[in-house]
Design a protein that fits this description.
The complex is a heterodimer of chains A (about 70) and B (about 170). Chain A has 6 helices and 2 strands. With about 70 residues, chain A is mainly α. Chain A has a two-stranded antiparallel ribbon with strand order 1-2. Chain B has about 170 residues and is mainly alpha-helical. Chain B starts with 8 loop residues before the first helix and ends with a helix. The chains are: A mainly alpha (about 70), B mainly alpha (about 170).
């Protein structure tokens, strides 16, 4: 997927662990791990809102767009 | 009534199918032995003349009086030999269908419903059932096989939706 979720980078900047963030946004560790490792297919607005609130950032800080090689050729 | 999970209909069916697999296996072994005795025993004019043949004759006397059976008995040995692989294939297909169905219901018992493994299992069962219906000339099995093939496509779509749901955070 060409959208990359940069949760690990923002978490490192804020010096917050996965467990701590999961507890704060009331999400399971496994679900947050899916998000962190980029396996997620979709993200709910409520989850994105909670992450932005707890990490004090904008959605743009978390999401990055990198066009695939296939997309570039097209 | 619960359909999925522990102590449900799926759990009961899984147990029944597991048991019936062994029952069919034992019955098929007995049938092969008895079939071989009946098919390859030489017709005895006077059963009292042979001690062993007398026992066989008593057991299968009703069967041997049957017109269809007499027709089979009159067939040449080469043709009679072909009956064994024919019934062997039917039994093998039946055992496979039972085994796969048991695997499917076992997954349902463990609350694994929309899963790639289930899609593959249903697809295999439907193909085996279609093969079984062609060999045994059974129209109802053919219909069930086609219906299962349709169900397989539904399960494929369900699995995709389940995956989408599981990976939405």
């Amino acid at each position: 997927m060409s959208i990359i979720f940069r949760l690990d980078r923002v978490m490192a900047d804020r010096k917050i662990s996965l467990n701590e963030l999961a507890k704060r946004i009331q999400l399971t560790n496994s679900n947050l791990s899916i998000l962190k490792t980029g396996k997620a297919r979709a993200i709910r607005m409520s989850t994105l809102e909670a992450i932005c609130r707890e990490l004090n950032c904008q959605p743009g800080d978390l999401l990055e767009y990198h066009p695939d090689e296939k997309n570039i050729l097209e | 009534m619960k359909y999925l999970g522990k102590k449900s209909l799926s759990s009961l069916l899984s147990g029944i199918l597991h048991l019936s697999w062994y029952v069919v296996l034992v019955l098929s072994i007995i049938a092969v032995v008895m079939g071989a005795i009946i098919l390859f025993s030489t017709p005895v004019e006077d059963p009292a003349a042979l001690g062993i043949a007398k026992v066989n004759f008593c057991i299968f006397s009703e069967l041997k009086n049957d017109k269809d059976w007499q027709m089979i008995e009159n067939l040449p040995l080469a043709v009679r030999i072909l009956f064994l692989p024919y019934f062997g294939v039917i039994v093998a297909l039946l055992l496979q269908i039972l085994k796969k169905s048991q695997h499917l219901f076992n997954n349902f018992k463990n609350d694994i419903v929309f899963n790639k493994s289930n899609v593959l299992t249903i697809s295999k069962i439907s193909k085996l059932l279609i093969g079984f219906s062609i060999i045994t000339f059974d129209f109802s099995s053919l219909l069930a096989g086609i219906l299962l093939l349709m169900l397989c496509e539904i399960f494929k779509n369900g699995t995709a939706l389940q995956e989408e749901h599981d990976l939405t955070v």
